[in-house]
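seq as requested:
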Amino acid sequence: MESVRRFFDPPKRSFFLLGPRGTGKSTWLRTACPDALTLDLLRPDVYRNLAARPERLEELVAGAPSAATVVLDEVQRVPELLTVVHRLIEAAGASKRFILTGSSARKLRRGGTDLLGGRASMCTMHPFMAAELERFDLADAIRVGLLPIVVASASPDDVLRAYATLYLDEEVRQEGVTRNVGAFARFLEVASFSHGAVVNTANLARECQVERKSAVGYLQILEDLLLAFRVPVFTRRARRATSVHPKLYYFDAGVYRSLRPNGPIDRAGDIDGPALEGLVAQHLRAWIAYGGAAADLYFWRTRSGNEVDFVVYGEAGFWALEVKNARRVHAADLRGLRAFAADYPEARVALLYRGEETLRIEGIPCLPVEGFLRGLKPRSDVLAAT
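struct tokens:
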């Protein structure tokens, strides 16, 4: 696969770069920092040396005085190194930049780990955005997602099938985040039915045959391993009673598809619809992260049944988006957006659908979702196409 220029714009000072396996962190580092002192903690020899004696990092840095950047890849494997990094940053000031990558936030966020006292910002690497790719095909993206390791593979389905196993073996087992790996593996599959839906932990626990407390813990593990994220309800200046529970999404449409069981009684729309919604969600998250936008991602649902899939709100702007996995738009599809616009006339609203024509129905723009995704770039207007 040809080299793809990512939208990620790194800080000039030290930073954490978090992202699930396969999002391209290491590839980006090799291109952006070719002269860095790089220590890959997935290498057994590097891991053993630094895990046994973290202060050895000081010796390695001192032995490479010309390296202005030091990369610690998969730093969560030896979180004790962060105390050493903290000391080195204070000693070196601006003369050294440390880039600390990780595919799991669990050990970095728990147990009193030294997060460098604010001396390093938190950044994230996401799957490809459509606008990063020279060739983007919506149908392919819905089917196999946009993970760089998948997009670059000649056998994307095989890579996706192995992906969950990779996480179970290398993250769950090695980090010891749960003692019952089999139950967590079942949870990964059961949670796929909640992709794009309001989270009901009681139902998840019942389907997995575990206690509700365990299901709550498994959801947290999913987020800590960066495999999933929750989208909260938008409640600012609420004029109507709203839902209180968040929605759940796997971080990539292809990963969701690989975990979602598919049998003879499953209709294509039962899987394609949530996959498309998740694809839009992952793009909006990347747009916020890469653009440094002062905005957050929400959804809106009233107890009377009105719903809007996504609300982007913050200093960057105010948008409401509904996603439909259909090639035609009907008046009923606009119900949620009409209700939202009535309550929040300041918001710009739009419906995204699988058709090819840009429409305006009852004053609401209806946009081809493929064109919307192609046009979505960091620091641009979310609805620039309108």
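The longest strand covers residues 307-314.
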